[in-house]
Amino acid sequence: MSEHRCFVYGDNINTDLIFAGKYTYTLRTPEEIASRALEDLDPTFAKTVRPGDVIIAGRNWGNGSSREQAVTCLKWAGVNIIIAESFSGLYFRNCINQGVHPIVCVGLSAKVKTGDTIRIEGGYIYHLDDQYPIPRLSPSVQAILDAGGLSAMLSRRFLTQG
């Protein structure tokens, strides 16, 4: 069982709002990148987020460019789970590759407020008296998430075979 504090955002949050393109080639360290997460959408986010917090969003989270910093800025800020009504396809895959669990959950974003907590247990998300199923991922995708991302999985694989 795990409890998570929530940051809640609406529909159509694009990658520029998650991580501004102007920083793509200027910020290098995880700390610098994390400090700019959601800067133009929620200026308080990077200062208040804690490891284990989750993002809950509406439809089409992560649309726009395919820049991976839009995922890594959240991961390095401590967010390992993003729950949305729907994701951009590229953003969903970037989450998997970076070891951040994207969960599609219809209906939750309308019920949760920033600062609320949810519980994730046994394949379900619990909020107050409501329960939402977590869709199962394929075994290969789950293996990537369990390894902490695609690079981590491949590094382990090559080290053990080497």
What's a concise summary of this model?
This protein has 162 residues and is of the alpha/beta class.
Question: Describe it for me?
Answer:
The structure is a single chain. With 162 residues, the chain is α/β, with parallel strands linked by helices. The protein has a single domain, classed as Alpha-Beta Barrel (Aconitase, domain 4). 33% of the residues lie in helices and 20% in strands. It contains 7 helices and 7 strands; from the N terminus they run E-H-H-H-E-H-E-H-E-E-E-E-H-H. The protein has a 7-stranded mixed β-sheet with strand order 4-3-2-1-5-6-7. Helix 4 crosses helix 5 and helix 6 packs across helix 7. The longest helix is centred in the last third of the chain and has 12 residues. The radius of gyration is 15 Å and the shape is globular. The model has no long low-confidence stretch (mean pLDDT 95).
Total helix count? 7
CATH architecture, by name, is Alpha-Beta Barrel
CATH topology: the name is: Aconitase, domain 4
CATH domain class:
Alpha Beta
Task: Let me know the average pLDDT.
Answer: 95
Helicity level = 25-40%
Structural class determined from secondary elements? alpha/beta
Shape, per Cα inertia axes: globular
Question: What is the domain tally?
Answer: 1
Biggest sheet strand line-up: 4-3-2-1-5-6-7
| CATH H level, superfamily name | Aconitase, domain 4
